[in-house]
Design a protein that fits this description.
Structural class: alpha+beta
Oligomer: single chain
Shape: extended
């Protein structure tokens, strides 16, 4: 194999690689030997077919397979010989006019990872803001939980339904006078004002009472998942069977027992654990952002353009998706365009920090164990249908890139924990409001880095004025939810209808976990602008 470097510019490299016909032919001979025992041909005993006849029968396929293997090996040899660390998969092109029996000329183009000086982890100073999980916080959590466990009780027959009430209905839905699949149901409970049904459905139930019959006129959303109903006008003939009103939830031992617990004290213990987990998550988010700001301020090096472009495209697609759900999508997208370069700078920061954390981890022996990796795979597999889980496990085990993508968040998380252990940390007790304000103030859209002129150790004391949330997502994906500002409910696609049940034609999709690359993923309601800074 012969190699000639044809481009060396910044992090871009390009090579012309020549694989000789002799090498390819030798690989064909190896392929012939490997399949000879299985070849069957009239007049010959199994395994005794002459090599020249095997070549004649399967020559084209054997040559193509040998060429592919020679190219794969040639690229690997090139990486080893030139000591290259590709940022992404190299682009390999076979020269036009290649014919069997001739040398193969390849062009191998790639971007390499930058040479990063061993990052210094000395002198890291962090403040840990802590919030005690006091009785007030625990009771607030229980009250929030009780509100979610809302009960309804029967109202007088003359009661006119109001927002917040529950209405029990039978219904028949139709489009152009023809009933449609999934548009019929009985005894469906609708909470008026809950936003569970398509726009306009619940509003028209205000003022109805038991025994009323009413025709509701609605329009299915343009993004409705059933093609035959998208954007269509429909009518629902509704019979009101009962109106119920919210029942007061008294938080006492009986309430705890209704949840299967021994007493209110036991419920408080469980809720205290949950509150502590939430507060610890906020504390870690604040510390991590300050840590990443210090690392970004102290390191500046060129990053591979293709990695930046891939990161930027991911950010931009999410932002465009969110903008499409605004009241005025076109205006939202136009506003977004004004900040394109800021988001590109965010992509550069994220890529640089990802490379930096990886370098620190490698330099200090941070590893993800095989047991941890196995747990990751099994957890990810649970997001798939039972019949697809084994296929997913095998896919990750066989595809190095898929395994690396699954491993990356945990690896970076472990590097961050390693740096926490090395940093000088001072503790300060604060309130939840102040901690959340500090996180929000730190997420003001500024892209911290060398030359930004900011003091990265300053402590935001007051809650920053509300600004357009930035799309600065943490590389450590597991922390995304904790690091995002509260997600605002967005108008989302409605669930697929189920025949003869609830008016699923009008029902909103229930919350569900996002399943990356899942064959039939459950989609999470898109947040307005998830602020996730790295």
């Amino acid at each position: 194999m012969k190699t000639v470097e044809t481009l060396n510019e910044g992090l871009k490299r390009e090579y012309r690689v020549t694989i000789t016909a002799k090498d390819i032919d030798a690989r064909v001979d190896e392929e012939v030997k490997s399949i000879a025992p299985t070849v069957r041909m009239p007049g010959f005993r199994p395994g005794k077919v002459p090599p020249n006849l095997i070549r004649k029968m399967h020559g084209a396929a054997l040559s193509a397979d040998a060429l592919n293997k020679a190219i794969d090996q040639g690229v690997k040899d090139l990486m080893a010989k030139e000591k290259l660390r590709p940022a992404l998969q190299p682009a390999v092109t076979l020269a036009d006019g290649y014919e069997t029996g001739k040398d193969a000329e390849l062009t191998v183009a790639l971007e390499v990872l930058p040479d990063i000086e061993a990052p210094s982890i000395d002198g890291l100073k962090l403040e840990r803001l802590t919030v005690p999980a006091d009785d007030k916080a625990v009771m607030a959590k229980i009250e929030e939980f009780a509100a979610q466990m809302k009960r309804f009780e029967e109202a007088p027959k003359t009661r006119k339904a109001a927002t917040g009430d529950q209405v029990i209905i039978d219904f028949v839905g139709s489009v152009d006078g023809t009933p449609f699949d999934g548009g019929t149901g009985e005894d469906m409970a609708v909470e008026i004002g809950s936003g569970q049904l398509i726009p306009g459905f619940e509003d028209q139930l205000v003022g109805v009472k038991a025994g009323d019959e009413k025709v509701l006129k609605v329009t299915f959303p343009e993004d409705y998942p059933v093609d035959t109903l998208k954007g269509r006008d429909a009518e629902f003939a509704v019979t009101v069977k009962e109106v119920k009103v919210p029942a007061a939830s008294k938080i006492d031992d009986e309430f705890a027992k209704s949840l299967g617990l021994e007493s209110l004290d036991k419920l408080k213990e469980l809720m205290k654990d949950q509150v502590e987990q939430e507060l610890n998550g906020l504390t870690r988010t604040y510390m991590k952002r300050k840590l990443l700001d210090q690392l970004a301020a102290a390191h500046d090096f060129e990053v591979p353009p293709t990695m930046v472009e891939a990161e930027f495209n991911q950010i931009w697609q999410q932002l465009e998706h969110e903008a499409s759900h605004e009241e005025d999508p076109e205006a939202a997208k136009a506003e977004l365009e004004k900040d394109r370069e800021e988001y590109r700078a965010i992509a550069v920061r994220r890529v640089r920090l990802g490379l930096l954390l990886s370098e620190i981890g490698q330099a200090h022996g941070v590893q993800v164990s095989s047991q941890e990796m196995q747990r990751l795979i099994m957890q990810a597999a649970q997001q798939y249908r039972p019949e697809d889980r084994q296929r997913f496990v095998e896919y990750v085990q066989q595809d190095a890139l898929a395994a690396a993508q699954l491993r990356a968040p945990l690896y970076e998380d472990k590097v961050v924990d390693f740096l926490f252990d090395k940093a000088e940390i001072t503790d300060r007790e604060t309130t939840r409001e102040e901690l959340e304000a500090a996180i929000e103030a730190d997420d003001d859209g500024h892209v911290h880095g060398p030359g930004c002129g900011h003091d990265h150790d300053e402590k935001p004391a007051k809650k920053a004025a509300a600004k357009k949330p930035a799309a600065k997502k943490e590389t450590v994906k597991e922390e995304a939810k904790a690091e995002e500002s509260p997600a605002k409910k967005a108008p989302v696609k409605k669930a697929e209808p189920k025949a003869e049940a609830k008016p699923a034609a009008a029902k909103k999709a229930p919350p569900a976990k996002a399943a990356a690359e899942k064959a039939e993923p459950a989609k999470k309601a898109p947040a307005k602008k998830a602020a996730a800074k790295k």
